[in-house]
Amino acid sequence: MARKKKKNTNEPLELNLTPMIDVVFNLIIFFMIVTDLSQKELELLTLPSAMSAVEDKGQDKKRIIVNIDRNGKVIIKRKEYTLDELAKYLFGEAQILRDPENNLFCDRPILIRCDSLATFSAVQDVMRQCAERGVGIWKVQLAASVGKADDE
Amino acid sequence: MDEEKDPQLEITPMIDVTFLLLIFFMCSIKFKQLEGKLDSYLPKDTGVTATNILEIPDEPIRVQLRVGGGKTKITVNGKTVANLTIPKAPQTTADEQQLKTLIPLDDLRVQVGTIHRQNPELKCIIDPDERVPNMHVIAALDACLAAGIENINFTIPPKKKAS
Fold this sequence. Notes:
The complex is a heterodimer of chains A (152) and B (163).
Chain A: H1 17-38, E1 49-50, E2 54-55, E3 64-68, E4 74-76, E5 79-81, H2 83-95, E6 110-114, H3 120-131, E7 140-146
Parallel strand pairs in A: 1-7, 3-6, 6-7
Antiparallel strand pairs in A: 3-4, 4-5
Helix pairs in contact in A: 2-3
Chain B: H1 11-28, E1 35-39, E2 61-68, E3 71-76, E4 79-85, H2 93-98, H3 106-118, E5 124-128, H4 134-146, E6 152-154
Parallel strand pairs in B: 2-5, 5-6
Antiparallel strand pairs in B: 2-3, 3-4
Helix pairs in contact in B: 3-4
């Protein structure tokens, strides 16, 4: 394709705004969807730091994730649960996978993600529900952010 | 023949490609906040029991956290090892980040470590009262784990009737 126009002088760049706006909109929509789909289980919380915390690979699909916000409210998959609702929920979830050797216990682990400033009594309430007869969830994990000392 | 020597740079497709590359790399990096977990398996064989602590022949290591005057006092078998301020509700992002700083409870770790070395069989019981913030309990748990104890239990108060 022979181009007749010779660029001997520096022409100012012509920026086509229309395709740029299209691309930006696409990006925005894409990230909105991706973020929403991936974050259904994890609430935005400030987790406390712990040195002994082991990195969480997040692979276990059968893990139940319970979030506790600063006010002590229990949130699972974006919904709030009262203690009674939590009891019913955990009971239901625990039936999905019992320990094959001992039916009293559930083989599913549970991750309790509690905000730094929430009172620990909220975590204790969840743990108590896990230990209830019929539920038997014993593999409890507490979420913490991997801590580094100030000078590291 | 095309005598054109100057290459013409077309900006529009270049921006498209750049955006695509951006999206690709942003998706492939795992952006998860570095989360860790502390395994705190409930005792499988005993579950939640209402046993009196005095029944256990070997007195377990009692780590108590009690709130008083806006501070959490941490004691090991009655001996005070830490007195942490309970932070006020954070106002700025910087305050919020402050909540994530590591609280190194060296005295607690040393105390518990000493008792553990003398008697490795002893289990540890962390006993927070109602108002202790999660971050202090996690810090205490962290210190106990750092001291080498694996058998750590939490006290769980009985269910309150009214809600």
